[in-house]
Amino acid sequence: MATLADVARRAGVSTATASRIINGSSKPVTEELRARVLAAVAELRYVPNAHAQMLARSNRNAVGVLVHDVSDPYFAEITRGLQRVATASGRLTIICNTFREPERELEYIDLLHAHQVAAIVVAGSGYLSSDAEQELDERMTAFEATGGRIAVIGRHHHASDAVLPANEEGGFLAGSHLFELGHTSVGVIAGPAALTTTADRLAGLHRAASAYGRSLNVVHSDFTRDGGEAATAELLAADPPVTAIAALNDSMAVGALAAMRTAGRLLSVIGYDDMPIARDVTPSLTSIRLPLTELGERAMQLALNPPPPNTPPRVETVSAELIRRESTWPVSQPR
């Protein structure tokens, strides 16, 4: 396999000159030299090293994306939007699964920084822990100091361009819907308590409970189908019994339906995010809709299109919407 030195020898130039021409450097060279180097590349069938090109070029062509778990339908939809914009801009997308581990996020930010990506989009929830957020903030700031761009989805400590889903508003809509149906004993199956997404959605539910003079029975678990099933089983054994369940994402809501089938009970259930599967389960799932693909698109657009110098971070809010289906009904009409 031909090397850069082989190309330089064939063209009669230094390796530095050959490298500048192959990697598209902005430093001027004569057309005669350029033609000789490119002819040598063709004759020797030289294949440039993509990583070396990325480091050599002043315009970085890769972007990093941090998600908690791309197999989660929530992040799959967001990633679709992120990649759509990145691909249209001719960028390579490097997707990193952090599995909700702050230490892993730090490692990936350092790795992406070392690879000199143009931008990093943090698509996963922020953390309530000030220590975890402080460390993440320091790594992001160091990346930005070398010319990188940061954009986040959701509430994070780091001051950067952000797209904020209306998580608190959506929680309020979910709670208000159940209380308006006459439910007085509502259980909540929530994700990990350490996440800002969990805290914000719960805050909206508590606001609704306060407005209607009600209380909530909250059980925390994983933001997964199995987590929802386990949390629901716990709620079904509660005293007094709940008549409705608010799940803080649709995967947990699907788990709630499974737990109820096992227990031979059927309660009103509302999910959150309105994933495609919400229409296909039985009963079809009432949910809080967030335009997840749009979230990803808008975050990547912010990351790739910097604002004018000395302007504050841009923050875009995406509203939530209640989508009523068959899984919720008035408490006076038990199923």
UniProtKB/TrEMBL annotation:
Molecular function GO terms recorded: DNA binding
SUPFAM superfamilies annotated for this entry?
Answer: lambda repressor-like DNA-binding domains (SSF47413), Periplasmic binding protein-like I (SSF53822)
Which Gene3D superfamilies does this entry report, sorted A to Z? 3.40.50.2300, lambda repressor-like DNA-binding domains (1.10.260.40)
Can you tell me where the transmembrane regions are?
none
Annotated ranges, domain HTH lacI-type:
2-57
Write the record's keywords in alphabetical order, separated by commas: DNA-binding, Transcription, Transcription regulation
Q: Which PANTHER family match?
A: LACI-RELATED TRANSCRIPTIONAL REPRESSOR (PTHR30146), LACTOSE OPERON REPRESSOR (PTHR30146:SF153)
Protein name as catalogued: LacI family DNA-binding transcriptional regulator
